[in-house]
What does this fold into?
Amino acid sequence: IDMFVRCFTVTNKWIEWLSIKERLAIAIKEIVEKNNASFAFPSQSIYVEKK
It folds into this structure.
């Protein structure tokens, strides 16, 4: 499942915008976790054989 969140703020102050963005991300994460779900993240494994 892909998730896209678009939101708008009424501030044009960079630090304030970053704070709002962070609080929103944390709130989304908490909602997901409260529903016994989690986010997947890309990963890869590399196996090296000795010769």
In short: The mean pLDDT is 92. The chain has one domain: 1-51. The radius of gyration is 18 Å.
